[in-house]
Design a protein that fits this description.
- The chain has helices at about 1-20, 90-105; strands spanning about 30, 35-40, 50-55, 75, 110-120, 120-130.
- The chain has about 130 residues and is of the alpha+beta class.
- It has a single domain (about 25-130), classed as OB fold (Dihydrolipoamide Acetyltransferase, E2P), CATH 2.40.50.
- Strands 1, 2, 3, 4, 5 and 6 form a six-stranded antiparallel beta sheet that branches.
């Protein structure tokens, strides 16, 4: 009998999950090739370090997804201050330095951007790839 009760409970939970409204989940997605147009460092805001990319994050997703990132400007944060607790300071600084290298050399980058984690409203870059 206990087995039938568990089965019935699992079926009911599955039906309830399917009939409930969808939950908005954060998206992480890989961008197309981006040009770094500017780098910003700040001692207290924006996670401490950001870059401006072109095209803007929400326009640059390879898989066609649309990220919930600010459209007023095309910055992304690396969170060099570790305010979000998502990326270590060392990793964030290294990613920011990679983006600065792209700015100085004129190389392109790709980013994995997370729109669930925001630093003063800006989306978090979780990975940076320097392209040849």
């Amino acid at each position: 009998m206990a087995r039938n009760t568990r089965y019935t409970l699992n079926v009911l939970l599955a039906v309830m999950a399917m009939s409930s409204p969808p939950i908005a989940l954060g998206t992480q997605a890989l961008t197309q090739e981006l040009t770094v147009g500017a780098a910003l460092q700040e001692h207290d805001y924006h996670g401490g370090c950001m870059v401006r990319v072109d095209p803007a994050p929400s326009d640059a997703m390879q898989d066609g997804s649309f990220l919930n990132c600010p459209s007023r400007d095309s910055f992304v944060s690396f969170d060099c201050l570790n305010k979000s607790g998502q990326v270590s300071k060392n990793t964030a600084v290294q990613m920011f330095q990679t983006a600065q290298l792209a700015l100085v050399t004129g190389k392109k980058i790709q980013l994995v951007i997370d729109d669930e984690v925001k630093l003063d409203g800006w989306c978090l870059a979780r990975r940076v790839d320097l392209l040849p």
